[in-house]
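User: My advisor, Dr. K., asked me to get a structural model of this assembly before our group meeting. I'm new to this, so sorry if the format is off. These are the inputs:
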Amino acid sequence: MDRPLEPRDQSLSTSGARARRAVWSRQLRLWQLVLPATLFLVVYFVVPLGMLFYFSVRAPGVSGVTLVHFRKLLTDTFFLQTLGLSVRLSLEVTAVALVLGFPLAYLYTRLGPVWRLAILFVTLLPLLTSAVVRSFAWIVILGKHGLINTVFIGTGLTDGPVKLLFTLDGVRIALAQVQLPFMLLPLINAMEQLDPSLEHAAVSLGASQARAFFKVTVPLSAPGVVAGAILSFALTISAFITPVMVGGGSFNVMPTLIYQSAIVTLDWSTASTTALILLVVALAVVWGGMTLGRRFRYGPGSA
Amino acid sequence: MPAGRLGGRVGHVTFWVAIWTLALGGLLYLLLPTLIIVVASFTAGEYITFPPQGLSLRWFTRLMALAEVRVSAWRSLIVATAATAVAVVLGVAAAFPLVRGRFAGREALNAFLMSPLILPSLVYGLAALMFVSAIGLPLSVPVLVLSHVAIIVPYVIRTTAASLALLDPHLEEAARSLGANAWKTFLRVILPNLLPGIATGAAFAFISSFDNLTVSLFLAGPRVETLPIRLFAMINFDFDPAAAAISAVLVLITFAVVLLAHWAVGLTRVIRL
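Assistant: The format is fine. Below is the predicted structure of the whole assembly, which you can bring to the meeting.
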């Protein structure tokens, strides 16, 4: 599978054929190093996913491939409502993460090393914190006697406690915090590539700071926005722990449906089919986003 | 035009106030849950509340008395250590051909090896459960370890490959031309230079295995309970305030991982890995 040798390697050799053989065998050995990881993932990752696919297209009493599970789910009102809720929730959470993440990423590129380090630390800590711990913290914050209600009642903002825990709003608040780091990192990476003098030029030519920001920095950061939004959407639509813990079973999203079918009702066909529909929706958004991102990068706007 | 300039200045101030308000709000939002759970774990009260009702270490003391917590924490430590060790061996080896090799389909192979990062871990948990049942393996610690390896191996490949791409090939050429053989070059020149990247990848891999709930939930079963499963049950079914003490310890471990990543490669480089 090895391609021809590099010219540099050839020019170094005094005796062509032997050196070529030596380098070729080195390349072969190098190539072999990827085999253990690849074989492991084929057996322990690809084959299991193949089984997921198998369970979704087979039914008892039907020989060969059948789409009966897909047909059953995609004509079921409850399933379609859950799918719709999952998509809407993911879009809303992504939008909140973008609105909070963009200014923070923008400031990151304008601040000194100490601030940058602080921002990165505060970003990476929740990113790596256990989802169970984070959801538990949100339960403590959103609960009837939690932080938010203590502040609201203490300041007289509301008379009684606001119900946030075990509601969709509570899950939105908790999920947006989970997704903010995934939005921030691509934004920071994209905005660091931008030359700040572009914005300065716009200001010195008479644009207000806000106009320069919206007309120069925002459009040029589009690739980062797209990357962050794709990541945030794909992770929100497949989030399980936060909807279960903060939502408390008050509503279903696609991942909770998968878990219920697999573990509670032991219906592996429905679980597999739901999982595949979730994957297709997530991949469609990733693909659509990447197509959009390419247009931003090479489109007429950037020329 | 003094009025216009004043308007411009007001607009300028408004703009920066808006940016700073949203950014500081975002920072507080990111930090709040971690802070709350750590502070709340020191409560002296019967329930976990914020602000805590007095300060004490009672829930940490109770933690010591909970046998299931001790057993599950120990099991999680074993699973995460074993999974990380396997992932480091597989991942470091794979990183070399992915960066240095010249063979057809290298890009595709790289994308394939990264794909566990993209697949929702819940979907993988379900698929792994079907696979394990189909081949008739009983749910056990080794099965759990292998499933964790599948989802954490990309972290090691990625950070090792990133360090390797930055390594100057002249260093190796110099070592080789000074008479070091391939092994010696690898052990004395390449490996020490890659160590920070490998350590960062291993730390991220360890913490994702140690904290994993979604895959373990499918594969663990009642006899192979891990710490995240125990914690999940304590919060959702037992309402045990000692859960906050476990959470505080987990936050501390995460804190250590971030510090390690900063010390090894620097946080500004970590985010580009």
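One thing worth pointing out at the meeting: The first helix of chain A runs from residue 7 to 12.

User: Perfect, thanks a lot.
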